[in-house]
Design goal:
- InterPro entries: FAD-dep_OxRdtase (IPR006076), FAD/NAD-bd_sf (IPR036188), tRNA_S-uridine_synth_MnmC_C (IPR017610).
- Its EC number is 2.1.1.61.
- The chain contains 10 helices and 20 strands.
- The chain is of the alpha+beta class.
- It has 2 domains: 179 residues, FAD/NAD(P)-binding domain; 154 residues, D-Amino Acid Oxidase, Chain A, domain 2 (2-Layer Sandwich).
- Strands 4, 5, 6, 13, 14, 15, 16, 17 and 18 form a 9-stranded mixed beta sheet that branches. The chain has a 6-stranded mixed beta sheet with strand order 8-2-1-12-20-19. Strands 9-10-11 form a 3-stranded antiparallel beta sheet, with no helix packed on it.
- Strand 10 and strand 11 form a beta hairpin.
- Helix 2 crosses helix 9.
- The radius of gyration is 21 Å and the shape is globular.
- The two termini are 41 Å apart.
Length: 381
């Protein structure tokens, strides 16, 4: 008998869950159904012009670091496979992180050692080697991620939702538990995954989640004579992408609890000023031909929220209590292109009864009830 899985949302988190359930099912029969309130998939930040994918750096080896580096490797594997079948704008061109201080160098070196990362994953390169990799002259040594690159988030969402039952203009107005299952707008499902960003808080039992909106504006600039040869992405506090069809994507701002999506010339100027400060040789004369702004959803600790929804009013550390078969995948922030995939794999393991792909420490690092543990330690629940 097929398991019916309702997935609320239509962005990276939701479509990644549908893709993972379908592709990891094996001998199981599952029917994912996506409920998207809007008229199309990939609204909001999931519809950004371009998405550079790389891990969030962690100096120490812990569950959070393991989560992001596992997500990074999984993303490269999945993007490579999808790109063979359909274009998602995938280009594993690599990314250089400029090292502008000895503190940064020490941090990256400690991260490489503590995380036991191989040179194939990440390594420190001299300014000379960074210049050779990027094909422009750079003044700084850099951290190089050879398998980093970019994809089109909108094309990725479409590819992940291929052959999935997608309900557009279908807001979920009623989510009701029935036994161990659920009814979504009156339709029965075995499990539900809430993967709709900040809107997760609108569902009963999720109001307490420590979510916030983060506004980001990015710009598109025509390549100039100095930047046209750029062969990889460069991060310098901001970032500039390798040009595609003669255009760079440059970004971005990070504005917490700001939900105004009107475009700001002051943001464009700030983005270009940061580029000029760090890469003056390619910034000369560069102007924005267009801009885009979107909201990302982040958690209080800047880590995704993934797993079963706890019953906050009944939950204790001695006896954690959860809603049956109700899952979250939200708060992916700036790393949603990769973290949405890791969270989807984690949830599909639980729904399908597979052996976990992630350690217990990693699963706890992203579990929704981590915030309840912290509140209880402070005597606030």
């Amino acid at each position: 008998m097929s398991k019916a899985i309702a997935i609320i949302g239509g962005g990276l988190a939701a479509t990644a869950c549908a893709y993972s359930l379908k592709n990891d099912a094996g001998q199981h029969s599952v029917t994912p159904v996506i409920f998207e309130a809007g008229e199309r998939l990939a609204t909001g930040a999931s519809g950004n012009i371009q998405g550079i994918y790389d891990p969030r750096f962690q100096k120490l080896r812990n569950g959070v670091g393991d989560y992001f580096f596992a997500a990074f490797k999984l993303a490269f594997q999945i993007f490579s496979g999808i790109q063979e079948r359909t274009d998602i704008g995938f280009d594993p061109c690599g990314t250089l992180y400029l090292i502008k201080s000895e503190d940064e160098r020490a941090y990256y070196q400690a991260m490489i050692e503590n995380q036991r990362l191989s040179g194939d994953d990440v390594r420190i390169v001299s300014a000379q080697e960074a210049s050779a990799v990027s094909r422009i002259t750079l003044r700084h040594d850099a951290l190089f991620l050879p398998h980093s690159g970019f994809v089109s988030p909108a094309l990725l969402c479409a590819a992940q939702a291929r052959d999935i039952d997608v309900r557009l203009s279908a807001p979920v107005r009623n989510l009701e538990q029935r036994g161990s299952g659920w009814r979504v707008n009156g339709e029965p499902f075995d499990s539900v995954i809430i993967a709709c960003g900040f809107a997760a808080r609108y569902f009963s039992g999720c109001e307490w989640l420590p979510l916030q909106n983060v506004r980001g504006q990015m710009i598109v600039c025509p390549a100039n004579g100095n930047s046209a040869n750029l062969a990889c992405n460069i991060n310098y506090g901001g970032h500039i992408s390798k040009p595609v069809d003669g255009l760079h994507v440059i970004g971005s701002t990070f504005q917490q609890n700001d939900t105004d999506l009107s475009l700001r010339e002051s943001d464009n100027e700030r983005i270009l000023a940061r580029l000029k400060e760090n890469l003056p040789s390619i910034a000369e004369g560069m102007k924005a031909s267009r801009a885009a702004a979107a909201l990302r959803t982040a958690s209080k600790d800047r880590v995704a929220i993934t797993g079963l929804v706890p019953r906050k009013g009944e939950w204790t550390t001695q006896k954690p209590v959860f809603y049956d078969n109700l899952y979250l995948s939200t708060a992916h922030g700036s790393y949603g292109i990769i973290s949405s995939l890791a969270s989807a794999r984690m949830i599909s393991d639980q729904i399908l009864g597979h052996a976990p792909h992630f350690s217990e420490e990693t699963r706890k690092a992203v579990a929704p009830d981590r915030f309840l543990y912290r509140l209880e330690r402070k005597g606030r629940i």
